[in-house]
Design a protein that fits this description.
- The protein is built from three helices and no strands.
- The chain is mainly alpha-helical.
- The chain is about 95% helix and about 0% strand.
- The chain has one domain (about 1-170).
Length: about 170
C-alpha cells in the first residue's frame, strides 16, 4: 500500500510540474493574445519572449501548487473510496464469520436442549408405560399368589375348625 502511495505521489508531482509548465506557457500566450486584443498598446511588449518566459516562471509555482492539491485531493478521494469499499467488504466478511460462529454455538446449545427435552419426554413416557406394564404384571402375580395362599390358609383353617367341630360332636 505504501509503495502504491509513494508511486502515485511521485507520479502526481511529475505530472504537476510538466502540466504546470505547459499550462503556464499556454496561459501566457493566451493572456498575451487576449491583452493584445483588449489593450492594443501592450501588444508589442506582451508578445515578446521575455514576458512569456517571465510569466511561465512566475505562474509555474502557483499552478504546480494548485495542481498538486487537486491531484492529491483526487487521489485521496479515489483511495478513500477504494478503502471504504475494501473495508466494507472486509467488515462484512469478518462480521459474517463471527455471526456464523455465534449462530452455530447458539444453535448447538438450542438443539442440545431441545434434543435433551425431547429425549427426556420420550424416555419418561416409555419408562412409565414399561414400568406400568412391568409392575402390573408382577403386582398381579404377587397379589394372585398371596390371595391364593391367603384363601388356602383361610380355607384350611376353616376346614380344620369344621373338622374339629364335627369331631367334638361325635
Amino acid at each position: 500500500m505504501s509503495l502504491y502511495l509513494s508511486l502515485s505521489l511521485s507520479l502526481s508531482i511529475y505530472c504537476n510540474v510538466s502540466i504546470s509548465i505547459y499550462l503556464s506557457i499556454y496561459l501566457s500566450i493566451y493572456l498575451s493574445i487576449y491583452l493584445s486584443i483588449v489593450i492594443p498598446y501592450l501588444s508589442i511588449y506582451l508578445s515578446s519572449i521575455y514576458l512569456s518566459i517571465y510569466l511561465s516562471i512566475v505562474m509555474c509555482p502557483y499552478l504546480s501548487i494548485y495542481l498538486s492539491i487537486y491531484c492529491n485531493v483526487s487521489i485521496s478521494l479515489s483511495l478513500s473510496l477504494y478503502l471504504s469499499i475494501y473495508l466494507s467488504i472486509y467488515l462484512s466478511i469478518y462480521s459474517n464469520v463471527y455471526i456464523s460462529i455465534y449462530l452455530s454455538i447458539y444453535l448447538s446449545i438450542y438443539l442440545s436442549i431441545y434434543h435433551s427435552l425431547f429425549t427426556s419426554i420420550y424416555l419418561s413416557i416409555y419408562l412409565s408405560i414399561y414400568l406400568s406394564i412391568y409392575l402390573s404384571i408382577y403386582l398381579s402375580m404377587f397379589l394372585s399368589i398371596n390371595l391364593d395362599l391367603y384363601t388356602e390358609l383361610i380355607l384350611a383353617l376353616y376346614w380344620k375348625k369344621q373338622v374339629k367341630s364335627k369331631l367334638s360332636i361325635i
